[in-house]
Amino acid sequence: MIFTKMHGLGNDFIVVAGKQSLPDNAAELALRLCNRFFGIGADGLVYILPSEKADFRMRIINSDGSEAEQCGNAIRCVAKYVYDNGMTGNEEITVETLGAGVQKVQLTVADGKVQTVRVDMGEPILKGLQVPTTVDAERVIEHPIEVDGREFKFTAVSMGNPHCVIYVDDAVSFDLETWGPKLETHPMFPRKINVEFVTVNSRTQADMRVWERGAGPTLACGTGACATLVASVLTGGTDRTATISLKGGDLLIEWSEEDNHVYMTGPAAEVFRGSL
Ligand code: ZDP
């Protein structure tokens, strides 16, 4: 098996291309290879596959073996991989995902290599039952949730995968490890959830820390940054374009008024290649 280790702002992936379909043991492989002590180490295992609807198809398995519908940082890595390896010569490509349909991706190339990637992440899903949450409402904004006697308020957004955004006084020092897993598996979230803790610092910038469903505390989450921007527009905290600062770096997120789509711009990097 030939693989490439890549990351988007420190959210790291084992990328595998050249297969026709997802192997039957993909979940077991993800568990084993993503392990940072006994394996290669990564937040997820990503397959670049042929697509009938788009230029490429992406499947992503979290480090716990569960499959994610969508992944903002991985899609930028996929774009870099296919261009840098000559699988496409186009600077605009389409990628099919499990939960968010076909996504349009724009590449910025310098010295023959992709530097930054802008992804049309599609329209956010805000209906409570569709995110999914157990709340039957058009929008779930600042909704109370109790965990272990502590009350939080969350705003629910799906970007193809489910997110809940929680505003806290200081996202950077927030105790993710305690509250993240309890919220991820709370009964209000039937498919579990990615949890973003956010502090808005200005109309155009917010700090975010993420506890990812199936992967735990990661350095960055692209779909989580998109969900954060959407939630921050809905709650009146930011403008429709803002920088979301993650542990691993910044993503620029725009929620277009014209087409209701969310656009994410950020880097992707290759670390090394290997075989096993
Ligand atoms: O939805 C999920 O189960 C996430 N853990 C998938 C990964 C999301 C990702 N971090 C992103 O950048 O959107 C890759």
Automatic annotation (TrEMBL):
GO biological process, one term: lysine biosynthetic process via diaminopimelate
Gene name of this polypeptide: dapF
Catalysis performed (reactions): (2S,6S)-2,6-diaminopimelate = meso-2,6-diaminopimelate
EC number, UniProt record: 5.1.1.7
UniProt keyword annotation of Transmembrane present: no
Subcellular location: Cytoplasm
Organism field: Paenibacillus soyae
Subcellular location, principal: cytoplasm
GO terms, molecular function: diaminopimelate epimerase activity
Active-site residue numbers: C71, C221
GO cellular component, one term: cytosol
Classification via InterPro entries: DAP_epimerase_AS (IPR018510), DAP_epimerase_DapF (IPR001653)
Site feature location: Could be important to modulate the pK values of the two catalytic cysteine residues: H163, E212
Role, per record: Catalyzes the stereoinversion of LL-2,6-diaminopimelate (L,L-DAP) to meso-diaminopimelate (meso-DAP), a precursor of L-lysine and an essential component of the bacterial peptidoglycan.
Family membership noted in the UniProt record: Belongs to the diaminopimelate epimerase family.
Keywords: Amino-acid biosynthesis, Cytoplasm, Isomerase, Lysine biosynthesis
Name of the protein this chain belongs to: Diaminopimelate epimerase
Keyword Cytoplasm listed: yes
Subunit structure as annotated in this protein's UniProt entry: Homodimer.
Residues annotated to bind substrate: N11, N62, G72, N73, N161, N194, E212, R213, G222, T223
Lineage: Bacteria, Bacillati, Bacillota, Bacilli, Bacillales
SUPFAM superfamilies: Diaminopimelate epimerase-like
Pathway(s) it belongs to: Amino-acid biosynthesis; L-lysine biosynthesis via DAP pathway; DL-2,6-diaminopimelate from LL-2,6-diaminopimelate: step 1/1
Enzyme class per UniProt: isomerase
